[in-house]
Amino acid sequence: MFIVLLRFSDNRAEAGRHMDGHRAWLRQGFDDGVFVLAGTLQPGVGGGVLAHGTSAAALRERVDADPFVAERVVTAEILEIDPARTDDRLAFLLPAA
Fold first, then answer.
1. What is the C-alpha separation between 18 and 95, in angstroms, rounded?
2. What is the per-residue pLDDT across 57-90, written as a single tens digit (0 to 9) for each?
3. CA gap 53, 39 in Å, rounded
4. Do residues 54 and 1 lie in contact, with contact meaning Cβ atoms separated by under 8 Å?
5. N or C: which end of the chain has fewer CB within 10 A?
6. pTM tops 0.90
7. How far is CA 62 from CA 23, 26, 44, 68, in A?
């Protein structure tokens, strides 16, 4: 499981030009079953994505394809988490026994 932090860079002013592409990128991630949550980092400093069911290398390729990343609107940090315990509603995130 991964947390992707997308923090605005000095090029933040270009976000509007690439918003449609960024939204399409998010939609594709959900359609592919890789993204399970996306939202805004408060207070408006960027965004975050929870990703599951992919490898680190495949996720890096996917993140690099985000127009916000490609156009340096945001910087991307990918954190990998090895889930050991969840609420029952998130049990699907645990490794298969």
1. 36
2. 999 999 999 999 999 999 999 999 999 999 999 9
3. 19
4. no
5. C
6. yes
7. 13, 10, 23, 12
